[in-house]
Amino acid sequence: MISKESIQGGPVPKHVAVIMDGNGRWARQRGLSRVLGHRNGVQAVRETLEAASEAGVSYLTLYAFSTENWNRPAEEVSALMSLLVQTIDKETDTLMQHGIRLLTVGGIEALPAEARNALIALREKTSVNTGPTLILALNYSGKWDITQAARRLAGDVRSGVLDVADIDEQCFAGYLSTQGIPDPELMIRTSGECRLSNFLLWQLAYAEFYFTPVLWPDFRKEHFFEAIADFQHRERRFGRIDAQIS
Length: 246
Fold this sequence. Notes:
This protein has helices at about 25-30, 35-55, 75-95, 115-125, 140-160, 170-175, 220-230, 240-245; strands at about 15-20, 60-65, 100-105, 135-140, 185-190, 210. The chain has about 250 residues and is of the alpha/beta class. It has a single domain (about 5-230), classed as Decaprenyl diphosphate synthase-like (Undecaprenyl pyrophosphate synthetase, 3-Layer(aba) Sandwich), CATH 3.40.1180.10. The longest helix is centred in the middle third of the chain and has 24 residues, at about 75-95.
């Protein structure tokens, strides 16, 4: 297993995004309900946040609930929202002690009031923190993000705030929900699935992808460090050739 010491001295991504997949399969393998799979995934969140902080990662984005997840059974959605509130209540002191700032991306206004209010309160409480930033993607999808950005940009063009000639990639990125946050350099997906599932479609354009068969409830610090170690062996060209990099 890779340790924290193993990755010291190498490049560390400033921003890591994670698709937390496999809760349901983990539960099914044990004859448990899917809800218990989600509950057991909370420890993986703690371990990942700690590992990211220890590795020197500044931003960690977790795909917690997609717009498509509303299509799941109502009882599972309700349990996920309750778990969100419980986790926020339980982990608030930990975030404050470690100086972690919480941000959210996605349409949180559509969440149940209790979950939405808990998130807003925690965002405000941690806004004074200057340590790593934890970003929860809730009621989020990449297509939604791009669509809402296009809608807002079009509104500014129509009202005369923005000239069409001034629209470029940097301008458009300023309308995304991740405005002001650097794009992820590394995306990790657990459970062996190899797809983006509508996650940060614009922002992951030049990210390195790391897929692991480990189911999310079993994901631990050493797995995160393994992903960082793999990242350190990638050659990031950004369209250039080897000679230009060396």
